UniProtKB/TrEMBL annotation, chain B:
This is Glutathione import ATP-binding protein GsiA. The gene is gsiA5. It is a peripheral membrane protein. It comes from Saccharothrix espanaensis (strain ATCC 51144 / DSM 44229 / JCM 9112 / NBRC 15066 / NRRL 15764). Keywords: ATP-binding, Cell membrane, Hydrolase, Membrane, Nucleotide-binding, Transport. Residues 1-252, 273-502 form the ABC transporter domain. One of its GO terms (cellular component) is plasma membrane.
UniProtKB/TrEMBL annotation, chain C:
It comes from Saccharothrix espanaensis (strain ATCC 51144 / DSM 44229 / JCM 9112 / NBRC 15066 / NRRL 15764). Its main location: membrane. The lineage of its organism: Bacteria, Bacillati, Actinomycetota, Actinomycetes, Pseudonocardiales. Coiled coil: none annotated. One of its GO terms (cellular component) is plasma membrane. Residues 124-312 form the ABC transmembrane type-1 domain. It is a multi-pass membrane protein. Pfam families: BPD_transp_1 (PF00528). This is ABC-type peptide transporter, permease subunit.
From TrEMBL, chain D:
Belongs to the binding-protein-dependent transport system permease family. The chain crosses the membrane at residues 12-30, 99-122, 134-162, 182-203, 236-263, 283-309. It comes from Saccharothrix espanaensis (strain ATCC 51144 / DSM 44229 / JCM 9112 / NBRC 15066 / NRRL 15764). The keyword Ribosomal protein does not apply. It is found in: Cell membrane. Keywords: Cell membrane, Membrane, Transmembrane, Transmembrane helix, Transport. This is ABC-type transporter, permease subunit. GO terms for biological process: transmembrane transport. It is a multi-pass membrane protein. The keyword Cell membrane applies. One of its GO terms (cellular component) is plasma membrane. Residues 95-302 form the ABC transmembrane type-1 domain.
Length: 495, 525, 320, 319
């Protein structure tokens, strides 16, 4: 995190006014997905246009004021009162009030938008607006990740919300106002001079869609864009050594690469075999060679800054082919060939899949690679249809640990792609969630239980914590991002 | 004879692999001279002609010297040759059917050639093209310039090729069988045209022909070629009067003449071919109008008429290639298409009717194969090639390795392969020299007598028709203007048109022909 | 002065003139011919094969030979090359990530620590298989359909429209669809290539056939009584093959692209099996590190393109 | 000509209908649907079901088909599942870009082929022959995704002469010189393989044409070598070239998918590729229908061109 701060801006340079920041993204907007935090264009749009009620710094889970300036919990955490910032205006000029908070929360809870924290949002049984600057949230039961929700739900303008689904208009209170979107081409944003946190230095932001990774790299190298999102790890590494360019790993917005196991598959139904898989993985090599050291190997999802992080538990699985073989011997029967699904046109997971295949072969497990396209992959994932193994990444472990187990589908205690369920795991997960606070000794103990269940269940073999990165030109300074990888150029400037 | 010779060929050798087509030929052509080059089919006439302008296929090896004035043409560069071609020396190709580009109009092609050596505008070139077509006697030239080669009759194509050669008024015209496809009246016009060119512009002509009548009519001097070698050359009168070589004598003896055959007996058998009220239109143009014609079994009917009169069209209707707009064609009492196994058809253009990728043996054997004829096909092919006087080793050659006359004989052999009951032959001997022609005619007569097949014999050569046919029909502008027993129609014609035709037949005797031409005497045929 | 003309006119060869005899025998040819008429007879009266002796001979000379050698070199490299390389194409060599060319790894190593040369050589096999089986198969089917369809105009219209539909699908979309139905892997690559080539050859041949059909020798064969099939086989097809030969050379050499594009989408030859396309697509991401990595599959493709093209040129010239 | 086209119309309509059925079924044969994409990786089954219902994907396929065709017939192309907007608008924008790109590439390729093909067929200079052989080999052997990357690196990054991708910010019609700058790299990249193939075909058919007898006739008349090739032989060689061109239209549209992605050129190729991977059925259906229509038209034009170029077919007369 310290690194990121220094690389993100040179505080000594006096920020210059004006200019349009050119941003390149490799994927285009999917309006119906704006609340799912799922791709570079969406996180760029949401980061620039919308504000949240609270804000997390990148190295802690203590909420900081944003649109809400004060908050207090009563009733054992079942009533939360928020005081709202005054004088904030939407880009349409309309003042922001408590009704908008209510509307935003209600929208987020609508299943149509697939907000990932929907299970947490549903705990909020009522939103009361006693005053324009006051919101009262009534909860079904206390939740430890309520502030994750408040830091995630974008505050949207109720009058123009109907235009979101068609991509016509996105109105928020953020530092930049949405101007236009040309599908597959670009998005334009202009400066919000009335921004409550100080008008941005930039005149605007122009986001261009450049689907090809090599072209995106070329665009940032040639200076056509100042900031590129979605450049491969190897390319980002190379770019970082180019004069005038730097790579910015998104600390605090960690992702996790993992191998999932269907615990009902022949062979994988034995926890010993699953543990053998976990022992066989060469995490160090994958992190080093595939992720170019942008991350660290891990046996558990938690990043090092997470309250759930436990060094001892996290070191449980290191590559140990001998142990893996021993476990397989204990299993007795030979393990049948296991299919491994991954997104075929994703170079990162194509590489990981082949390394995994190689690793498991050394331990004595034959793996058959099954590349599928991304849509099919998602379908199989949420339909829990993988016949054996799969590999991809997940997020949500960078926020409150409970969010992971209730919101991230692979970890969902009640229903997950691994077909894994055990009363112990469900119990541990529920307990961690229903705590009134995300931090503190009580929480840490609850998280430890969850971690142990994860390690023993072995339905997910974590590979490591990895970081997405921006590649930026030195000309653009003051680049910031949220813990959900949302781009923040509110304090950025060109020089 | 002198240094002023226009063209001097010396020691010319041309070979294709092992085939030595021309062997040490020496020949000269003086300015304004008309030299006739005669000789058997395949003797190397066309090859010699092409060698002069460097137009042989890459497989040919050429040695010796060809001087145009003092300019050496053998081995000259393409650009040097290009300057000579068309302007100093022009060429009329033997087979007009393939010599023209099928996808451009004839007017366009003539204009392109006109513009090759002269900076004419498009319009003037167009106008000149019309003029040239008119010059070579193509009726309605203003319309014809817009026609494509496949819309012209054989003779019309040949005249277009002549027009191409005349386009740039060359010093020397090498004319390879320029009149083979022409009926006698048009032939006479073309000969007059050539003579006029020589008289007016001093154009020299190297005339390759097998028609002794044409030689007698036009040539100053005659050179006789035999198997690639020059066997005799002499001024025309001398040669005709006293040929020194046996070969030349035989050549002259083989010349068919009108009225030399006894009248044939009338035939009354069943019809092998019956055309009733046949009318064919090409767009607005009526090529045949209500033609009635029948050929009895065992009978040979000659069909004569001027170029473009509709002879080939009629032949194509009879063969079922073309459906008439009105009227019917019955072959051996059925539709021509169902009778195909039982008749043979000889195309007017021998070159384009042979598949270039097939060997000669394959071409000839095709009917046998198609109809699964019993017996040894190889032996049959050998027999047929022999019958048309082609050496057996030609069997493995491809059509383009043959001379014009040789290809024509392949067509005849193919038509005869299945021992047909009816033969429809469109100018089957037009490219043959008199000696080979005589043997083909003898063959046909012999077969006819033995097997008694019927034959529709289309030809513009009245003498040939007279020597073969029982009956003759005369076609003029798509109508039968006269028909009857051969001796009556050709010796005592009643229709004015027929009389004109008969009168135009050149006599294979230079003295008599000259006399007739100059009107000093009216020598009867 | 005595020019060559004088000599020419004086020169004749009485000795070579045949003596006497009738018209038929007046010329030497006749005599000789009669004598040989009963011997074995001419050969080759069967149907002309489209690729005959002439073509084969042409391939053994000049351009054709160069082409054959080029394709042969590639084929040989694919067949015996892998045996000569010390590395296994699947072996992930520890700590050999993206190495540049060296003595141990002449073309370097790839992102998964495998020897590029070993993978390249083994990869040739898959692509040769596709080039030499799928493409000719597609060409054959396409030509057959295209040619047969010209028989009846109704069928022709139907087939051409069908081809329109097939051609209208961008190749990759077709590939995605087919792979989804049959499942990814080499078989689906072969099927996609066949499916892609059929309409191409069908249409190409058809247009040539339409032209050749107008030729006089086709009419000649019809008059002889040749049925449609016969005319098509013996006359029309052999004379329509020129563009087909050119296209065949092209398709055979660029089948690697279809395979490559499919492996990019993850529906081609499944990893970790090596193929030229797979090597090429991974290599592009490492252009800056090790250009040889990317150049080598391209060089192989170029050799194939050049080789097949020279062969096609020679074949057409021989047939011309 | 118009009569000819009218006669072809019914079969073309039948094709369009068949194609519509085929397309409809084919894209549904691909496993996975847009609901999964829209729901995202963490969605519960209810959410997916809700989305399916909202998109109408839960209805019987026949009903979906009839609904779609009904829409088409009433001029409603439908809405994209993922992009949100009206397909008509999307397609109109994309079409302008793709048409500009492919037509520019087509023009480039045709011009190259018309210049190089005859030169290659007629040359006697071994060096020219080798040079053109090399050009042909390189253009055919280099896939677009390689040329694209190389072009961008050389002209966009190294020399910085041209933009590395994208469309002119103010639109294609704003300033021709700017548009040209943006267009040149993708057009060259797209045109190169097509140019190579066309050149090869044209040269090879011209060589065949130059072996014909009529060429001897014009040579004998002293027509210049260049003229023989360009004016006399070319016409006979064109039908094959036209057919190839028709086929290469497919290569152009297919290549557009890659080129548009490499050069961030927001056209239909990109749209269709995205549509397929994201199962955006309405978009794919409309685009593929468009593509089929284009092909039917191209084929009709090819046939017309054939007849126009070969009088034996045009005036074939009676057979
Ligand atoms: N391209 C070739 N390849 C091989 N042999 C050839 C080729 N062209 C001609 N010949 C042979 O050369 C000889 C001379 O042919 P040429 O065409 O000069 O005969 P010609 O005297 O013109 O006969 P015709 O009167 O029949 O036209 C023939 O035997 C012929 O078969
Ligand atoms: N396809 C066609 N389209 C238009 N006119 C044609 C076509 N074919 C032939 N003709 C015309 O029909 C007339 C008769 O042609 P045909 O070929 O029957 O003549 P012919 O008597 O055989 O002449 P020749 O002796 O010159 O071969 C000619 O004037 C010719 O120009
Ligand atoms: Mg000749
Ligand atoms: Mg005729």
């Amino acid at each position: 995190a310290v690194d990121a701060r220094t690389s993100a801006g040179d505080p000594s340079a006096a920020p210059e006014q004006g200019g349009v920041a050119e941003v390149g993204v490799n994927l285009d907007l999917v309006p119906a997905n704006v609340f799912t935090n799922s791709n570079a264009a969406i996180t760029t749009l949401v980061g620039l246009v919308y504000d949240n009620l609270v804000h997390y710094d990148r190295d802690s889970l203590d909420p900081k004021p944003a649109l809400a300036t004060e908050w207090s919990a009563t009733d054992g955490g079942r009533t939360v009162t928020l005081k709202l910032r005054q004088g904030v205006k939407f880009h349409t000029g309309r003042p922001f009030t408590s009704a908008d908070v209510k509307f935003s929360l209600a929208t987020y809870t609508d299943p149509k938008w697939n907000g990932q924290l929907i299970s947490t949002a549903k705990v909020v049984t009522a939103v009361e607006t006693p005053a324009p600057d006051q919101v009262v949230l009534r909860l079904d039961h206390p939740v430890s990740n309520l502030f994750d929700l408040l830091a995630t739900v974008p505050v949207i303008d109720s009058e123009t919300a109907g235009d979101i689904a068609t991509g016509k208009r996105f109105v928020g209170t953020g530092a930049f106002a949405f101007e236009s979107w040309r599908p597959n081409t670009d998005l334009t944003f202009t400066r919000n001079a009335d921004y409550w946190d100080g008008a941005p230095h930039l005149d605007g932001v122009h986001v261009r869609v450049v689907p090809d990774g090599q072209s995106l790299l070329a665009a940032v190298k040639s200076g056509q864009v100042h900031l590129a999102r979605g450049i491969g790890y190897r390319d980002a590494e190379a770019a970082a050594s180019t004069p005038g360019l730097r790579s910015i790993p998104l600390d605090g917005a960690e992702l996790q690469a993992y191998v999932g196991l269907n615990v009902t598959a022949p062979g994988l139904d034995d926890p010993k075999v699953r543990q053998a898989v976990a022992y066989a993985l060469d995490r160090d090599r994958i992190i080093k060679e595939v992720f170019r050291d942008k991350g660290y190997p891990a046996s558990l999802p938690w990043p090092r800054t997470s309250p759930a992080y436990d060094e001892e538990l996290d070191g449980r699985y290191r590559r140990d082919v001998g142990k893996a073989k021993a476990l397989l011997a204990e299993h007795g029967a030979p393990v049948p060939e296991i299919p491994l699904a991954y997104v075929g046109n994703d170079p990162v997971f194509t590489a990981i899949a082949q390394v995994v295949q190689n690793n498991l072969a050394e331990a004595g497990i034959t793996v058959k690679l099954e590349p599928v396209d991304s849509t099919q992959f998602v379908k199989q994932l949420i339909g829990a249809q993988f016949p054996g193994l799969w590999t991809t990444n997940h997020s949500w472990a960078q926020l409150s640990p409970a969010t992971l187990t209730v919101s991230a589908y692979p970890f969902n205690a009640r229903r997950n792609a691994s077909h894994f369920s055990s009363p112990e795991y469900t119990g541990a997960a529920e307990a961690a969630w229903k705590l009134p606070a995300a931090t503190g000794p009580e929480a840490v103990a609850a998280y430890r239980k969850v971690s142990e269940q994860l390690l023993d269940g072995g339905f997910l073999a974590e590979i490591g914590v990895v970081l997405e990165q921006f590649v930026a030109r030195d000309a653009l300074q003051g680049v910031d991002w949220s813990r959900r990888r949302e781009l923040d150029l509110g304090k950025a400037h060109l020089r | 004879m002198s240094t002023t010779d226009l063209l001097t060929i010396s020691g010319l050798e041309v070979s294709f692999g092992d085939v030595r087509a021309v062997r040490g030929l020496d020949l000269t052509v003086a300015p304004g001279e008309i030299l006739a080059l005669v000789g058997e089919s395949g003797s190397g006439k066309s090859v010699t002609a092409r060698a002069v302008l460097g137009l042989l296929p890459p497989t040919a090896r050429v040695r010796g010297s060809v001087l145009l004035g003092t300019r050496e043409l053998v081995g000259a560069g393409e650009e040097a040759l290009r300057e000579v071609r068309g302007r100093s020396v022009a060429m009329v190709f033997q087979e007009p059917a393939t010599a023209l580009n099928p996808v451009h109009t004839v007017g366009w092609q003539i204009a392109a050639v006109l513009r090759a050596h002269r900076g004419l505008t498009r319009q003037t070139a167009r106008r000149d093209a019309v003029r040239l077509l008119d010059l070579v006697g193509i009726p309605d030239p203003a319309t014809r310039v817009r026609h494509y080669p496949h819309q012209l009759s054989g003779g019309q194509k040949q005249r277009v090729v002549i027009a191409l050669a005349l386009a740039n008024e060359p010093d020397l015209i090498i004319a390879d069988e320029p009149t083979t496809a022409l009926d006698v009246t048009v032939q006479a016009e073309i000969l007059a045209l050539l003579r006029d060119l020589r008289d007016r512009l001093g154009t020299a002509i190297l005339l390759i022909t097998h028609n002794m009548g044409v030689v007698a009519d036009l040539a100053d001097r005659v050179a006789v070629l035999h198997r690639g070698e020059l066997v005799e050359q002499a001024p025309v009168d001398e040669l005709f009067a006293a040929p020194t070589r046996a070969y030349t004598r035989e050549l002259l003896a083989a010349v068919p003449r009108l009225g030399h055959r006894d009248p044939a007996l009338p035939h009354t058998g069943a019809d092998a071919l019956r055309l009733t009220g046949v009318t064919v239109r090409y767009g607005d143009f009526t090529a045949l109008s209500t033609v009635d014609l029948h050929v009895a079994r065992g009978e040979v009917v000659g069909l004569v008429g001027e170029s473009g009169s509709g002879k080939s069209t009629l032949g194509r209707v009879a063969a079922g290639v073309l459906r008439p707009d009105a009227g019917t064609a019955l072959v051996l009492d059925t539709d021509p298409r169902s009778a195909r196994r039982r008749f043979g058809f000889v195309f007017q253009d021998p070159g384009s009717s042979l598949n270039p990728r097939m060997t000669i043996a394959e071409c000839v054997a095709e009917p046998l194969r198609v109809h699964r004829a019993p017996g040894d096909h190889r032996a049959r092919v050998a027999e047929l090639l022999d019958a048309v006087r082609l050496p057996a080793d030609f069997a493995t050659r491809r059509p383009r390795e043959l001379s014009g006359g040789q290809r024509q004989r392949v067509g005849i052999a193919r038509a005869l392969a299945l021992d047909p009951d009816l033969l429809i032959a469109d100018e089957p001997t037009s490219a043959l020299d008199v000696s080979v022609q005589a043997s083909i005619l003898a063959l046909l007569t012999e077969l006819q007598q033995q097997r008694g097949f019927a034959c529709l014999f289309i030809s513009h050569d009245l003498a040939v028709v007279d020597s073969l046919a029982h009956r003759v029909a005369v076609l003029h502008n798509g109508r039968v203007v006269e028909h009857g027993p051969h001796h009556e129609v050709l010796r005592t014609p009643t229709a004015a048109y027929t009389r004109r035709l008969v009168d135009a037949v050149p006599l294979p005797d230079p003295v008599a022909q000259r006399a007739r031409r100059t009107g000093l005497a009216d020598v009867p045929a | 002065m005595a020019g060559p003309g004088v000599a020419g006119r004086a020169r004749c060869h009485p000795a070579r003139l045949p003596g006497g005899a009738g018209v038929a025998d007046a010329v030497g040819d006749g005599v000789r011919r009669r004598a040989v008429a009963d011997r074995r007879g001419p050969r080759g009266v069967g149907p002309p094969d489209p690729v005959g002796r002439q073509e084969v001979n042409a391939l053994l000379r000049g351009r054709g030979l160069v082409g054959l050698v080029l394709v042969g070199v590639v084929a040989l490299a694919g067949l015996v090359g892998p045996l000569l390389v010390q590395w296994d194409p699947y072996q992930q060599i520890p700590d050999a990530n993206l190495l540049g060319p060296s003595a141990a790894h002449p073309l370097g190593t790839d992102d998964l620590n495998r020897d590029v040369l070993a993978r390249l050589l083994s990869g040739i096999r898959v692509d040769l298989l596709i080039s030499l089986t799928a493409v000719p198969l597609g060409a054959l089917i396409g030509c057959a359909i295209g040619a047969l369809a010209t028989f009846t105009s109704a069928l022709d219209v139907a087939v051409q429209r069908l081809f329109d539909v097939l051609l209208a699908f961008p190749q990759l979309i077709l590939a995605v669809g087919l792979a989804a139905v049959i499942g990814p892997g080499t078989t689906s690559v072969v099927i996609v290539v066949v499916a892609v080539e059929i309409p191409i050859f069908g249409r190409l041949l058809r247009s040539a056939v339409l032209r050749v059909r107008e030729a006089q020798f086709v009419t000649a064969s019809e008059v002889i009584g040749g049925g449609r099939g016969h005319v098509l086989r013996t006359h029309v097809l052999p004379n329509s093959l020129e563009p087909v030969v050119v296209q065949l050379a092209l398709s055979m050499s660029v089948a690697v692209f279809i395979e490559g594009a499919m492996s990019v989408l993850g529906i081609g030859v499944s990893p970790p099996d090596p193929s030229l396309g797979a090597v090429l697509t991974t290599s592009l991401r490492y252009l800056d590190l090790n250009p040889l990595f990317a150049l080598s599959p391209l060089a192989v493709t170029a050799l194939l393109v050049l080789g097949f093209q020279l062969i096609a040129q020679a074949a057409n010239a021989a047939r011309g | 000509m118009i009569g000819y086209l009218l006669r072809r119309l019914p079969s073309a309509l039948v094709v369009l209908w068949l194609a519509s059925v085929l397309i409809f079924l084919l894209i549904r044969a691909i496993p996975g649907d847009a609901a999964a994409v829209l729901a995202g990786a963490d969605a519960p089954p209810e959410a997916v079901a809700a989305i399916r219902a909202e998109l109408g994907l839960d209805r019987p396929v026949v009903a979906q088909y009839l609904h779609w065709v009904g829409g088409l017939l009433s001029g409603d192309l439908g809405r994209s599942f993922l992009i949100g907007g009206d397909i008509a608008g999307l397609v109109a924008d994309g079409l302008a870009n793709t048409a500009t790109l492919t037509l520019a590439a087509l023009l480039l390729a045709v011009l190259t082929a018309l210049v190089l093909g005859p030169v290659w067929a007629a040359t006697r200079n071994p060096w020219v022959d080798r040079l053109l052989t090399a050009f042909h080999t390189a253009s055919v052997a280099l896939p677009t995704f390689v040329t694209g990357v190389v072009l961008i690196l050389v002209f966009g990054v190294f020399f910085r002469l041209l933009p590395t991708g994208g469309v002119p910010p103010a639109g294609l019609l704003d300033r021709v010189d700017i548009t040209a700058q943006y267009l040149v790299l993708p057009a060259v990249c797209l045109a190169l393989p097509v140019a190579g193939v066309l050149t090869g075909f044209l040269a090879e058919t011209l060589r065949g044409e130059l072996r014909q007898d009529y060429v001897t006739t014009v040579r004998a008349a002293g027509v210049r070598g260049r003229e023989i090739v360009v004016r006399h032989a070319l016409r006979g060689a064109l039908p094959v070239a036209v057919t190839t061109l028709g086929l290469q239209t497919g290569a152009l549209l297919g290549g557009a998918v890659l080129v548009e992605s490499i050069f961030a050129w927001p056209g239909l190729g990109l749209l269709v590729e995205q549509g397929v991977t994201r199962r955006d059925y309405p978009v794919v259906q409309v685009l593929l229908m468009l593509s089929v229509t284009v092909f039917v038209v191209v084929q009709l034009l090819t046939d017309v061109a054939h007849a126009a170029l070969d009088p034996r077919i045009r005036l074939g007369g009676k057979r």
